[in-house]
Design brief:
Layout lengths: L2 E6 L5 E6 L5 E6 L6 E6 L5 E6 L5 E6 L4 E7 L5 E6 L6 E6 L2 E8 L2 E6 L13 E7 L3 E6 L4 E5 L2 E6 L7 E6 L6 E5 L10 E4 L6 E4 L10 E7 L2 E6 L4 E5 L5 E5 L7 E6 L5 E6 L3 E6 L4 E7 L4 E6 L5 E6 L4 E5 L5 E5 L6 E6 L5 E6 L3 E6 L8 E5 L6 E6 L5 E6 L4 E5 L9 H5 L27 E6 L5 E6 L4 E5 L10 E3 L6 E6 L5 E6 L5 E5 L2
Antiparallel strand pairs: 1-2, 2-3, 4-5, 5-6, 6-7, 8-9, 9-10, 10-11, 12-13, 13-14, 14-15, 16-17, 17-18, 18-19, 20-21, 21-22, 22-23, 24-25, 25-26, 26-27, 28-29, 29-30, 30-31, 32-33, 33-34, 34-35, 36-37, 37-38, 39-40, 40-41, 41-42, 43-44, 44-45
Amino acid sequence: MLRFWSLLSGLAPSIHVWDAITKQTLSILRCSHAKGVGYVNFSATGKLLLSVGVEPEHTITVWRWQEGTKVTSKGGHAERIFVVEFRPDSDTQFVSVGIKHIKFWTLVGCSLMYKKGVIGSVEDGRMQTMLSVAFGANNLTFTGAINGDVYVWREHFLVRVVAKAHCGPVFAMYTTLRDGLIVTGGKERPTKEGGAVKLWDQEMKRCRAFQLETGQPVENVRSVCRGKGKILVGTKDGEIIEVGEKNAASNTMINGHTRGGIWGLATHPFKDVFISASDDGTIRIWDLADKKLLNKVSLGHPAKCTSYSPNGEMVSIGMENGEFIVLLVNSLTVWGKKRDRSIAIQDIRFSPDNQFLAVGSVESAVDFYDLSLGPSLNRIGYCKDIPGFVIQIDFSADSKHIQVSTSTYTRQVHDVPSGKLVTEQPIAERITWATWTSILGDEVLGVWPRNAEKADVNCACVSHAGFNLVTGDDFGLIKLFDFPCSEKFAKHKRYFGHSAHVTNIRFSCDDKYVISAGGSDCSLFVWKCQ
């Protein structure tokens, strides 16, 4: 049976154990870790589970997870613990490593005992910050250090240092007792002799380096695993790559954004394709049907918003530095770019007639550009009198108006391209909107829960058919409403998956899917509408 777990932090940290095949929850462990769980690991037989808290004592707890009971716990170390691993042939012995320490632990009955690693007089040996652990036969332990060395221990004594196993930190190690070979992953620029993934013999005296072929050099590996002639590699850039041991062929299985929130999200007007924009400085184009990455563009600055043109031929991106860029979809080359603002662009939209581009910023303004005048992108008008920074923009169906939602939680309607504020309520009420992504207005009043703070609901989107509304909130929830949603505390369905702070949400072109973007979890979720 395959098992995997989730780590939850917050008011009531817990550990959830699932069956990886059936996806059924097998156990929920209510933790004594007050501030969260930093690491977990199963014992050799799978009967015991280790957990490490992120509180100052970094408490190590041993669980009989199937029974939901705690065996014992003990303070792990005053400094941060990065990894705790059971020996692959034991339910009683494990090793913890972290900032400037290594400890060798034994579970004796219901008590935990440990011995500190002893450096002794080994050449080049000094206590390093250790990031990873692997095990060998004859009670050998291997630990990967932050400076690129690997330390070899017998029992709790250092016996040898493998100097510069990697050029940078050794973030990951993996071994099986079946053949004793050791895989390491670290930070290293690919060369003919070296790479970020290496396969070593049982004593770490000889190795083979692998070049990971993904279209771009892979210099930073954070996780490795090995089995059935394959090595699985997890990278800093959110990729999972499968590498053949014999032919060294690379197959990228999973792509994703790297560190930083995902803010921008847009779906193609008539294809099962969507685009995401992130603080990692990239936009990524995804295929909904095949669930794969189609292309990636590195922009050099964090990207905050994006949109497709109505004909699907252009895509626009708003940047954190106040710049915006228009790309041609077929070639992903720059058609035009401009920087009329000095701080972040919050939302960007093409008009339905494909003539105007509206660019909303933190500078409490929406600028208009006439695309028919060419790639010079000269500003032809802008909205004034916007209280607070811009959150969302929507065009009217006739391209003559926009609605603007602001950080002061006011919704305003302006003429396009003059930017004049529409003050006559009857005129505003007669406007038909091409899209609706605003979290404000009578039409979406019911999305706000009881006792909600104004910042709780972050994003919304009405389906193209106009019958449904989805929202994302600060609690990681996706909610589905009928539209319009004008009654307070409207009935809805809730869907879980994201961690805190859903940043954006969109329906696909045919309303068969909903795509949501996460801030803290750096993830994109695709939901099927039934």
